[in-house]
Design goal:
With about 675 residues, the protein is mainly beta. The chain has seven helices and 39 strands. Keywords: Cell outer membrane, Membrane, Receptor, TonB box, Transmembrane, Transmembrane beta strand, Transport. Its main location: membrane. Belongs to the TonB-dependent receptor family. This is Iron complex outermembrane receptor protein.
Length: about 675
């Protein structure tokens, strides 16, 4: 252990390079120190007070799978879906099984206010954004643990579980810094898998056009007080056009151990992707290829009765090999890009209930590190790239993020008010502390109808790609400042067994927004902080449950519609934008689920998209100018037979074989047909 100053003469800190006398490879590899501040959070793990007398939580509803009673991650303290004073979309298991989709990305295409721009199909790679934000501004969580990638948001959806393993998805629209910390700038998406008390084995096999195969196996196993969920999957295709083939492997384990002190929840996952990246990052060189590997592990404990504690620790490693030329490289090409990020996190969330409401407080330590041959600052010594022969990292960067949270929720008659703030320190910001407050309000006029409003501030740190990437068409900027925003929101919610409807208006003022821009076609794309961008939006959602209206035997089961509008004001600047201004102006989605005959059903999804902005249009790798995005309609259909143990299905995406472009110069697939069977063997019945 030693004391040192960093190169920016920031405050003195205690650091260590070894643990228990061993020089672990991670500390050696990153050539950086891990701040001993993490021990402050770690200390709390072994000093949790236990309460002898339980206090009833009168505000927490029982958590079966009635939607109103699902606990969602909208505040620091537990809150149910019906209590939340925000727009939250919850996609449950039954909805997932009825949807004509095969990946998380495809499913999110239909969510309110969510913009999915897919480079590769079936979960290969997609950029996800919420409410007109950029793909780096949406935080992704797996069972409440932050799995976002600091290298680039392009990798945020590299999740080690397939769609078949997911129990539900929660989407929080709007900034969430005081709940999740930095980078929950325009929204957050929490992907939830849960071990089931019923022991079961599930198999799902599907095949389709373009050599598609989709193989899934999962099991719930109960051993004493330990419940385990294990899942593995493989999805592959020859590709719908040249150089769009892919091969994806996932393996995932989640365990839940119930003990006297509390419940221990731990998970570990691994995903391996290899895919043709036709024109992914520049149409000038379409023969690109990418291979990524993601390893993830976390452990979380829920303990305490009057004073509740939830300590957590997590680690995520992401490895990326990008080939600008999959074969036949140009004479000037010097080699592939290699990157490896390691993220470590420790957090503690605590809350208690009193006559004044619920009070929550907590802290998080997060260390983000990258090794690369192109991103970062020069290393003192080169480091061998794991798993690659004769390749070395020459650059790297490390930053530390420390956040403290506090929140209190009042319940006064029909009024609910949640006030909170996040105090944040980031090592790259020259020892500055910043505070990001927020308040959520709701007033219940009746059991069915309530109004809500909110005010929240948030920030996003630039990714390592924003800071350092340099290529044939792009140039990063190591002097970037973080993005900051202030968001105002107001809306109404109406909920009965037959109808769930909500509407919200929001106004966001973004400062120092980060984008890849250029003034003329001849210049490189460069990252820059844009002075100010104002955003106004409207979201409307309505879901009809015909079972509650006409009875369970009625052939129409569900009909839903959601609409999102977003408008950006960039001021008088005349730059070309590569990402920030290419947001969805209009998006409307229709959903219909109905029976056909006995146990045979159909699920329809139809959506319309109209995107702002333009893209660099190429013909045969030759740039011919900027082209506006054209609006389009798409329809997807799933027909399936279902009983208690089996589902046999036929799915058709892009039913009417529409040609369209949704990102860059990348042609999206036409009609794609697949068919499969899912079988679940229940051991408890």
């Amino acid at each position: 252990m030693k004391k040192l100053f960093n190169k920016h003469n920031r405050a003195e800190v205690l650091c260590f390079r070894r643990w228990n006398g061993h020089g672990y490879s991670l500390f050696q590899a990153i050539k950086r120190q891990v701040r001993i501040a993490s021990l402050v959070v770690a200390y709390l793990y072994v000093s949790l007070p236990q309460e002898a007398v339980a206090q009833t939580d009168t505000l927490k509803l029982s958590t079966d799978y009635n939607l109103d009673e699902i606990e969602v991650s909208a505040q620091r303290a537990p809150v149910t879906y019906s209590q939340a004073a925000r727009i939250i979309s919850v996609i449950e298991r039954e909805q997932i099984e009825a949807a004509p989709v095969s990946s998380i990305q495809d499913l999110l295409e239909y969510a309110l206010g969510v913009d999915i721009r897919q480079r590769g199909t079936y979960g290969v790679q997609a950029d996800v954004s919420v409410r007109g934000g950029s793909f780096d501004q949406t935080l992704i969580l797996l069972n409440g643990i932050n799995i976002s990638d600091p290298q680039t948001g392009h990798h945020n959806l590299n999740v080690p579980v397939s769609l078949k393993s997911i129990k539900r998805i929660e989407i929080l629209n709007g900034p969430s810094a005081r709940v999740y910390g930095p980078n929950a700038f325009s929204g957050a998406i929490n992907i939830v898998t849960e071990p089931d008390d019923d022991e079961a084995l599930r198999m799902d096999v599907a095949f389709g056009d373009h050599g598609l195969r989709d193989l899934n196996a999962s099991a719930n196993v109960k051993t004493g007080k330990l419940t385990s969920f294990i899942a593995a999957s493989n999805m592959a295709s020859n590709g719908y056009i040249s150089n769009t083939d892919f091969d994806i492997y996932n393996i995932f384990y989640q365990g839940r151990l119930k003990t006297e002190p509390g419940t221990l929840d731990f998970q570990v996952g691994y995903t391996d992707k290899g895919f043709g990246a036709n024109s992914f990052y520049t149409p000038k060189y379409p023969n690109q290829y990418e291979a990524t590997k993601t390893t993830f592990a976390s452990v979380k404990m829920e303990t305490g009765k009057t004073l509740h504690f939830t300590p957590a620790a997590y680690w995520r490693r992401h490895q990326d090999r990008f080939e600008l030329f999959r074969d036949n490289p140009a004479s000037w090409y010097s080699g592939h890009n290699y990157h490896m990020t390691d993220v470590f996190g420790l957090s503690l969330n605590s809350w208690f209930q009193s006559d004044l409401g619920k009070t929550a407080f907590g802290a998080e330590f997060r260390s983000e590190n990258i090794l690369s041959n192109v991103l970062g600052e020069d290393l003192d010594d080169s480091i061998k790239v794991p798993g690659e022969s004769g390749q070395y990292f020459y650059k790297g960067h490390s930053r530390t993020i420390i956040s403290y949270f506090a929140e209190h929720t009042f319940y006064v008659g029909n009024l609910t008010a949640s006030l909170g703030a996040m105090a944040n320190w980031i090592s790259d910001l020259h020892n500055e502390w910043n505070v990001y407050p927020g308040i959520d309000l709701s007033y219940k006029f009746s059991d069915q109808f309530k109004a809500f409003g909110s005010f929240n501030k948030s920030l996003r740190m630039p990714t390592f790609t924003d800071l350092y990437y340099s290529g044939p068409t792009n140039q990063g900027n190591p002097d970037l400042k973080p993005e900051r925003s202030t968001t105002y929101e107001a809306g109404l919610k109406y909920r009965t067994p037959a109808l769930n409807a909500e509407a919200a208006w929001y106004h966001r003022i973004g400062k120092d927004m980060i984008d890849w821009v250029r003034l003329t076609d001849a210049e490189l794309w460069q990252t820059a902080n844009l002075t100010e961008i104002k955003s106004d939006g409207l979201e409307v959602n309505a879901d009809l449950n015909f079972g509650a209206i006409a009875g369970p035997s009625f052939f129409i089961k569900h009909f839903g519609v959601n609409y999102a509008y977003n408008s950006l004001d960039k001021g008088s600047s005349n730059y070309l934008s590569n990402y920030v201004l290419d947001n969805l102006k209009h998006k409307i989605v229709f959903s219909l689920d109905h029976s056909i005959w006995q146990n045979i059903y159909a699920g329809w999804k139809v959506r319309f998209q109209d995107r702002n902005g333009s893209y660099a249009k190429y013909e045969d790798t030759v740039y011919i100018g900027e082209s506006d995005y054209e609006p389009f309609w798409l329809a997807d259909l799933k027909v399936y037979y279902k009983n208690e143990t089996t589902q046999v299905y036929l799915s058709v995406s892009n039913l009417f074989d529409k040609s369209y472009i949704d990102i860059g110069n990348i042609s999206q697939p036409g009609r794609w047909i697949s068919a499969g069977i899912s079988y679940q063997l229940n051991f408890n019945k």
